[in-house]
Design brief:
With 255 residues, the chain is α/β, with parallel strands linked by helices. The protein contains 8 helices and 9 strands. Strands 3-2-1-4-5-6-7-8-9 form a 9-stranded mixed sheet, with helices on both faces.
């Protein structure tokens, strides 16, 4: 499975989260780094997008050699790279494409600006099978125009993405409710006990686990349920590597 994500030196999020999650879920990861980051378990300090020519060469070489069964998109913090990635996924519309819209770090660092959000809406969303925003990212992608979550998800689906899985980790609720919205079917809901503390890489883990399920030809609802179970268990076993957010333990549960 092809993963396009940033490099997180803590190992909690980004491309390492993709690799660990896919391995634990029976898939092989083709890791392509979109951006180098300076960060710790507290926050991101800065990013350095990979040069678009290098990214293009990596993708062309890799895709000419290895069959791909799904694509997962994480951090994109550069307009040139965003346009290139949109071209790649446009050429693979027969594959499941899961996009985790990484717009802001848990510590508050902004990866995006208005131009990037506009380009994401125009070039990435129309080609996505499942978008996995948290409630803050959902609001940002809707340009803060909709307070109602269902209306906001519908707006994004009108822009072209087929399904929207909204995670409730950022909502001020006792439990966490995750909602899968469809264009032509009722929404599906899952409620999870809210775990104490905060976690680094939860969104990357969920999106990668969902993409793994789709790559293995699981039906969408089953893949979504399995991905949530895997993520919740990884967070429950989370451990304190540094002094900030805990890191998910993404080892298979039978080890």
């Amino acid at each position: 499975m092809l993963c396009l994500s940033g490099l997180d030196p803590t190992g909690g999020a980004g491309i390492q989260a993709d690799i660990e999650t896919l391995s634990a879920n029976g898939c092989h990861c083709l890791p392509v780094i979109t951006s180098l980051t300076v960060q710790d378990t507290h926050n991101v300090v800065r990013t350095q997008p990979v040069a678009v020519n290098l990214l293009r060469a990596q993708l062309a070489t890799l895709l000419a050699d290895v069959p791909v069964h799904a694509i997962k998109i994480g951090l994109i913090d550069n307009l040139d790279n965003l346009r290139l990635i949109s071209e790649v996924i446009a050429d693979h519309q027969n594959l499941p494409i899961v996009a985790d819209p990484v717009l802001k770090a848990g510590g508050g660092f902004n990866f995006s600006n208005n131009d990037l959000v506009d380009a994401y809406r125009s070039h990435i969303l129309p080609r996505v099978t499942v978008l996995t925003p948290n409630t803050d990212e959902l609001s940002a992608l809707c340009l803060d125009e909709h307070d109602d979550q269902a209306v906001a998800a519908s707006t994004l689906m009108q822009l072209g993405c087929q399904h929207v899985l909204v995670t409730g980790t950022h909502a001020q609720t006792q439990d966490v409710t995750n909602t899968l919205y469809h264009n032509n079917a009722p929404a599906e809901y899952w409620v999870w006990p809210r775990l104490p503390g905060s976690y680094h890489g939860s969104g990357c883990t969920l999106a990668s686990a969902l993409a793994a399920g789709l790559a293995l030809a699981q039906p969408l609802t089953q893949a979504t349920c399995n991905a949530q179970t895997f993520t919740w268990q990884a967070l429950q076993r989370g451990w304190q590597a540094g002094q900030g957010q805990a890191l998910p333990d993404r080892r298979p549960t039978n080890t």
